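[job 0412] stage=complex_fold ligand=magnesium ion status=START
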Amino acid sequence: MLKILRRIIQDVNAAQTLSEALDIVVSGVKQAMHIDACCIFLIDEAHGENVLVAADGLNKSLVKKVRLKLGEGLIGLVGERAEPINISHAASHPSYIHYPDSGEEFLKAFLGVPIIHQRHVLGVLIIYQTEERCFDEAEEAFLVTLSAQLSGIIAHALATGNIFGQDKTQVTAKGKVLTGIVGASGIAMGKAHVIYRLADISAVPERKIQPEEVAAEIGLFETALVAARQLIRSLEENMAAHGLPEEERALFDAYLRILESKSFVQEIIAEINKGNWAQGALKIVTTRHISRFEDMDDAYLKERAADLKDLAERVLFYLQSREMNARHFPEKTILVGEEVTPAALAEVPEGKLAGIVSGKGSTNSHIAILARALGIPTVLGVEGIKVTELEEKELIVDGYYGQVHCSPSAVVRHEFAALICQERDFDNQLQLLRDLPTETLDGYSIKLYVNTGLSPDVNRALSVGAEGVGLYRTEVPFMTRDRFPSEEEQRVIYRQLLQAFLPKPVVMRTLDVGGDKDLAYFPIIEDNPFLGWRGIRITLDHPEIFLVQLRAMLQASLGLDNLQIMFPMVTTIAEVEETLRLFRQAFEEVVAEGLAIKKPALGVMVEVPSAVYQAQSLAKRVDFLSVGSNDLTQYLLAVDRNNARVANLYNSFHPAVLRALLQVVAGAHREAKMVSICGEMANDPVAAVLLLAMGFDALSMNATGLLQVKWIIRKLTMQHAKRLLEEVLQMDDAVEIQRHMEQALEEAGLDSVMRMGK
Ligand code: PEP
Ligand code: MG
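[job 0412] stage=complex_fold status=DONE, emitting structure tokens
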């Protein structure tokens, strides 16, 4: 059954339209389950009806014609109850309604399962049999499983497609709109530039070419083939040099034989001649061969399917690299992809990146943090995004409401252009605050620092008048290399940053890889990377890496004395003690080399619940604490910060997070130590009011959000902020807290920053 299920889902994913996908489901189910009919009803919200959208074994001409009021008939009952209904004789059920000419008068057994996505019933999947019997448990379980897998695909299509014969998106005033999660605020208008996952044969889109392009595509394919052959040969030589025995190397010969086989090459050329682009032709031929291998009974031959895929992806890699070099990025590029990675941003020529739209990711993914640092409006987690459909389309990225407007009308374009102007005016107003103190109306001050690293955009940080760097993510120089950077390489990079901010303080965080931050040359494969080998856990296990980094930071600070160092992901006091021991060792070594270095202030990040409860014990041992609210929220609420599916549960206004923050501030202040916060929460002007009231000494955020936070702090009194904090601490729900804050600030006339700083 699992095999059948996989095949149906695979075929559904390959379908070009939702109608095609639904037809595949009904015919696939009918055939696999040996039943007499299968059909699907979907809810048309606009009309409050269940609509027949696909049928096999029933009168197909009724598709889109049979429409039932919600709750009507057996179908309505399945939807209302949101659970399967399995009956041996449908016609004798009181809810049964007969449809003339449907062909169902001969059908007796009925099993309907709801199609549910994120708690919403989208429709019903039904199977029938002429014989009077109840479907067994295995059949019911199969249908429930299939329906659960289909629900995501259907949800997306319903949100964007025109399944009910009328384009749902045309009836909205805003045109076709995709919805996701806010990654970075702001509005961008531009043209989509789609990036495909490199060398993923299944992700290659269909693309037709003109007859005059055929020769060039064949040329591209042949060049890629030569490069792939060369690669395999050099791999083989390499393996031989490493002493791999000849019989093991036979695999490479087998690979070469496939790449040189006339049939494989000719088949691809034939597909190109039919008008497919080279990548598509490669996909068609490879898929054909792979499914032949997979259908074989012999285990050895089955395995060859994987080899073939691997090979095809190597050829594809060369085809795509050629393409990448030749890529033309529009003047205002909206980068679109199933998963837009930080590396993909680097490919866009400077000044051309206007917006980002990604199928994966959530507000606190590193791509979002990077986008906010760069001030690029971004929408992430756009479920089921069909990127090929967006290629070269005009898009508007609304980074306030998490929406993407595709091919917008002139009216919509005009409306957003006006908003962009408003944004610009507000920014100009904010610029006037640059050199003014961050002080409440009743004279309380707080320091505002910037986070850098993902984009070491020092100029931007200085241009907004930051009082220093509260978090420098040192992972970046590690990510942009193909090996660990040397001590001297690190020293040079760190010194540049310290010098740029002199005499303002710069807090450098030691290497924080693991979780979702990978180093290509140091892969960490784990089932639960966020609960695994991360941050300080790695560097304590590798003192040779840690000591080099500490020494480089210390050497970089020679004569500048504005360095501070902090340690990520600390969970135990023992980790702090060991960290301090290694720090002392590094410090003594550097001093012994004759460098007159001033000992920097040392701090610990509070990002896991255990550190909250031990805040005072931690503060006793170091000079400052800094809350990493991104991870702290993730760990307190057990919500993966990257997972769009649970993004609605990720909320730093959760009462548990607010109480944890208060406890950290109290712990640090009892030891008379400074406490700051450097997670994304500090970037939100509404949250910043609460953080100010809690007594944080400093907030560290993206340069792009700093002036908005300064604006709001300068507009209220500490007394007002404290009153709001007291009020929200009486509340039990994150959304209620957020609403209360927004409403209160609106009443105080401070809401202009809310939309801009959302
Ligand atoms: C955090 O977790 O809040 C933090 C600042 O660190 P990062 O986002 O780099 O994990
Ligand atoms: Mg963190």
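The chain has 28 helices and 22 strands.
[job 0412] exit 0
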